Amino acid sequence: MKARASRTLHASWMVAAALAGCFVFACSTSDTDGSSPTSSDAAVDSAVPDAASPDDADAAPDARGPFDAEAPPVTCSVTPCITKIVAGPNHYCAVSSEGVVWCWGDPNALGNFAPKTSPAADRGAKPVLLAGVADVVDLGATLTHTCVLHSDGGVDCFGRGSAALSRVARVAGAKRLAVGDSRSCVVDGNDQLTCWGDSFALGNGQTTMDAGGEKAASVAMSDYAAFVVGMSGSVYSWGFEKQMLGRTTSLGIDWTPDRVEVLPATLQLAASTKHVCAITIDGRLFCWGHGDQGALGVGNFQDMPLPTEVGIPGPAFPAQIAVSGGHSCARTTNGRLYCWSRANTYGELGYEDVAGVFVPALVSSMENVVSVATGTGSTCALSTSGVVQCWGDNSKGQLGIGQHDSQRHPTPTAVAFP
């Protein structure tokens, strides 16, 4: 069944239909690498393209027709043909149509898969095939490591601290994976949320987390806050970071999932170490958390402790969201891409000017986008042809072009797969 929704459909039916028809829930990434780019306070000017007004999406929302979040199919006109991408702060991984995994970027996050034959200065700058990694159901990445969920429920990880591929958990029937630096979770075959690892902010040991008494649809993790989307579309949060929980709590560390306030039934959610964004079942975008990087998309850099609606210009709806600590990007239902941040220091927003935009701005060079992933100062997008293009910071080889450099890369460039 296709993931199709309208404002007149019941929330629980819609989320179940979306889950049956497509896989659109995003796992979060950790963004604390200690190298925050210099922010720019420059306002949007004539050199910054297509900045959207928060009012644009409300001009005639019903004229946009019904909301369909399903991504367009990948037609595979290249080899390897990529069908899924995920991001850590300084590296990316991709699954091909053959079911194999490629990764590139920070060699510390690639573990033993980082090629030893490359010049030390350029290790990880070209995609490397993860030999022996197959039968992939889902991927997750953080600053320090990458994890793979297999169809047998096994979760294998590699990277800093565990360079070799190693089994860290096995949960029968697991089908969704969210990875944090200290704690990770899966949605299992019974639609229950199982988590493991030790984190002062998110809990300790292997436990089953309660999602308000309902079954879990997806999960997202950051270093200090975690989120589970229930089958009804309700979102529940727990953790240490009050600005990101999206609800009021009297506890300094709240380990009990409780419902995010004022957020309509949700289809997809992504979390960084700074903020959270969600797409609702009727095609609206909401963000909350720390606004100092301008990544909330609400027109300023104020903190928003509760979900606040973000305008995306019509006629398309936001359909997939990706967030890093410094910027956010959304794919729309017409295959276009919008990004926003306080600064465009490395070109991560996809245009030349270093000034940022505090509301979604069109990446004019990108069309036919299937999905987007965001790292710290960099962005990668997958198109319907199976090509991955990246732009922004390349200091650790995040762009996959075969070398590291300190230049700005505002123009999307195809990843150079061997």
UniProtKB/TrEMBL annotation:
Keywords: Signal
Pfam families per record: RCC1, RCC1_2
GO CC field: cytoplasm
NAD in keyword set: no
InterPro entries in UniProt: Ran_GTPase-activating, RCC1/BLIP-II, Reg_chr_condens
GO molecular function (one): guanyl-nucleotide exchange factor activity
Region (Disordered), start-end ranges: 35-69, 399-418
Signal sequence range: 1-26
Skewed-composition ranges (Low complexity): 35-52
SUPFAM superfamilies referenced in this protein's UniProt entry, alphabetically: RCC1/BLIP-II (SSF50985)
Alphabetical list of Gene3D superfamilies matching this protein: Regulator of chromosome condensation 1/beta-lactamase-inhibitor protein II
The protein's name: BNR repeat domain protein
Organism: Labilithrix luteola
